[in-house]
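Example record for the data management plan.
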Amino acid sequence: MQWYKEYAGMLFSPKKPKSEKLAAIMNEGIQRLRKSGELEKILAKYGMPDRLAGNTQ
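Corresponding structural encoding:
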């Protein structure tokens, strides 16, 4: 099963008061992981490319 290679994401309900803050925290964490190279290592472990970084192999 390879559905995970097509899409991976996190959703936050606009109806929840903390959603905007939680999404910002998540985005900042992902950016730190990407900048340090850790995100690429984590995704590679599961055979997933970092599509937003331009690595679509």
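Summary line stored alongside the record: The radius of gyration is 13 Å.
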